[in-house]
Amino acid sequence: MILSRLRNYLRERRRASVADMANGLGSTPAALEPMLATLERKGRVRRLAAASACGTTCCKCDPATVAVYEWAGDERAGDERAAGKGAGGDATV
Fold first, then answer.
1. Which of 29, 36, 40, 79 has minimal CB crowding within 10 Å?
2. What is the pTM of this model?
């Protein structure tokens, strides 16, 4: 899977669980984790604090699949706006 597809998925939805992303992108949570880590390291996404997804205490859900990530934006676009250059720029990940 291409990192840009994951980036675009989160950019469009703003927030999604790993299970939702895996389902929507035809992938697995295990395949997405390294890509999400890359996007998080670059400041593009942030992992939200763990919360009970369904409100029960059965613990049958895989914690990796209920992790929720949120789009944090493009730091490059913010830098260009601050410099008065507009939001143009390239589409790097």
1. 79
2. 0.67
